[in-house]
Every structure is written in structure tokens, then in C-alpha cells.
Write a structure and sequence with these properties.
The protein is an all-beta fold and 119 residues long. The chain is built from no helices and eleven strands. The strands form two sheets. Strands 2, 4, 5, 6, 9, 10 and 11 form a seven-stranded mixed β-sheet that branches. Strands 1-3-8-7 form a four-stranded antiparallel β-sheet, with no helix packed on it. A hairpin with a 5-residue loop joins strand 5 and strand 6. The termini are far apart.
Length: 119
């Protein structure tokens, strides 16, 4: 059973940058894809970014396109989310998730890390 642990959240001002990390441990880590989701206060969870692990393919939500970048360190079993030019509307709990097969759901989730962007 793979465990995902996010880190790197915090309180920042609008325009600042943060890098979130998500490290996998505790099992055979062979993802098909990794993704970041977020849940703003009082709202449903929403997709942010995803990558297919062994390819250069990635995609982003329109709201973060050009500001956020997903990347990986295969040796560290870690996926990152670089967030630039943060806006108050980026305030949310950020979760990483993994799917093991193309047709599967994102079945493994981390506990989340809070990002708060002040004006």
C-alpha cells in the first residue's frame, strides 16, 4: 500500500511562489499518472494538474495554466507542484493523487497541505 505525503504548503502573499512536494513510500511505487487537486474553502475538490509518470505529457486546469508546473523526481518517488504568481483564489488544501492504470480512478491520496494566499 503506497502512502502519499504532501508538504510545502504555507501562508504567502499574492504574487509569491511555493513548491509543493508529494513523496510516495511504503509500497511498490509504479504510478501510471500523478495529479494535484485542491479544495478551496467551502467548495468541492477540483483538478489542478496531472502528468503521466513515464512521459512528458502533462495538463493543467485553465485557472493555473502558465503559472503552475508539475514535475517529478523519479529517484525520490516525488512529484512537485511549482506555483508562481499565486492569487487569493489559489487558497485551498492541495492534495496529490496517484492512479496505477490508465482506466483507473485516482485511488491513492495524500492527506493534503494547506496553501493560503493573502492580499
Amino acid at each position: 500500500q503506497v502512502t502519499l505525503v504532501e508538504s510545502g504548503g504555507g501562508v504567502v502573499q499574492a504574487g509569491d511562489s511555493l513548491r509543493l512536494s508529494c513523496t510516495a513510500s511504503g509500497g511498490a511505487f509504479r504510478p501510471y499518472a500523478m495529479a494535484w487537486f485542491r479544495q478551496p474553502p467551502g467548495k468541492d475538490r477540483e483538478f489542478v494538474a496531472a502528468m503521466i509518470w513515464n512521459t512528458a505529457y502533462d495538463r493543467y486546469a485553465e485557472s493555473v495554466e502558465g503559472r503552475f508546473a508539475i514535475s517529478r523526481d523519479v529517484a525520490k518517488n516525488t512529484v512537485y507542484l511549482r506555483m508562481n504568481d499565486l492569487k487569493p483564489e489559489d487558497t485551498a488544501v492541495y492534495y496529490c493523487a496517484m492512479k496505477s492504470l490508465p482506466a483507473a480512478d485516482f485511488g491513492s491520496w495524500g492527506q493534503g497541505t494547506q496553501v493560503t494566499v493573502s492580499t
